[in-house]
Amino acid sequence: MSSHLTVLGWHNVESTWCFPVTGSGAAGLEGQLRRLRKFANVVPLEEALDSLREGRPLPPRAVALCWDDGYVDNLRLAVPILEKLGLPGTFFLVPGLLSRESRAWWEVAGWAFERSSKERIEWRGMRLFTRGQAGRICYGRAADTLRTMAAEEREEALADLVDRLAAEGEPGDAGLFLDWNDAKELVSRGFSVGSHTMRHATLAQESPKAQFEDLRQSRETLEGELGVPIRVVAYPFGQSDAVSEATRDAAERAGYAHGLTTEFGWNTRATPIAHGRRIMLEPHIGFAQTVVGRVAGRIQARRE
Questions:
Q1: Which SUPFAM superfamilies does the UniProt record give (predicted)?
Q2: Which of 129, 149, 165 marks a domain boundary?
């Protein structure tokens, strides 16, 4: 038996404006999950986190699976694969996206770069290119800037960015995400659901009071609409500038038993319950390549 848990996370299955996928994302994801079923013990996320918290042993090579944001292809593509392989999964949902009261700014920005009528623009002191690999790099720079803003400032900055890029067409971002009927179908098909905040806020950039209210509202809205307890939250973005001590405190006060970051690593009995670690994956990139790349990046960051 073991006292270690690896939590693996994904976002989309097939390409979106923000998350491009090379080849077939569904085939890539199925290959990943088949290898996991063969070489690991895939366990329900919430039960495994409870076991760690309570000091109960886990099976060797315990792995839990989850998806963030509520992309519609999670239900259309990931769920059938999980069902075929007999694997559990958890889906972290955003009530504001489910109701279409919020927009996925990262997808809107990705669309604006991809369909920009400009070769380059000036925005917030940066020269941003829109074509080819340089365009993807510049999109990343813009997204990192937007990510670390409070919600009100981000809305204004995004509108300015989209205006400067003068994109052609419409982003169709709403169609990328599940709605409430889809979320209910996830539950009816036996999959667990968690919170990903009310409006996908970068929590640590908000006031402690706003963080608490967002987390509380998200949990209560999901429970009211779906009729299941919501005990786990996955913090959007999940890096150190998105999760603070106030964030962890707000999550516990808002009624969550567990909180998950995107901090790379594994979970043990010593891992703080409101600061779990995950390894985020893409369906077209193998496990080894992802892990080696992340470890190399951490080593380089320490050297700098």
A1: Glycoside hydrolase/deacetylase (SSF88713)
A2: 165
Give the mean pLDDT of 60-69.
Answer: 97
Q: Are residues 53 and 151 in the same domain?
A: no
DSSP 152-221: HHHHHHHHHHHHHHTB-S---GGGGB--HHHHHHHHHTT-EEEE--SS---GGGS-HHHHHHHHHHHHHH
pLDDT of residue 288: 59
270-273, Cβ contacts within 8 angstroms, sequence gap of 24 or more: 271/52, 272/248, 273/49, 273/53
Average pLDDT for 2-16: 95
Domain containing residue 116: 105-165
130 and 33 within one domain? no
Residue linked to tokens 């059938």: 80
CATH number, domain containing residue 219: 3.20.20.370
Phi-psi region of 230 (alpha: psi -120 to 50; beta: other; left: phi over 0): beta
In-domain check, residue 77? yes
- Kindly state whether residue 299 falls inside one of the protein's structural domains: yes
> Are both 9 and 71 inside the same structural domain?
yes
DSSP states along 247-272: HHHHHHHTT-SEEE---SS-B-TTS-
pLDDT greater than 70 at residue 208: yes
Among 222, 263, 258, CA closest to 243 = 263
What are the respective helix, strand and coil percentages of the chain, to the nearest 5? 50, 15, 35
Q: What pTM, to 2 d.p., does this model score?
A: 0.93
Is residue 17 classed exposed, middle or buried when 0-12, 13-18 and 19+ CB atoms within 10 A define those classes? buried
Reported as a single tens digit per residue, the pLDDT across 167-185 is 999 999 999 999 999 999 9
Amino acid at 125: G
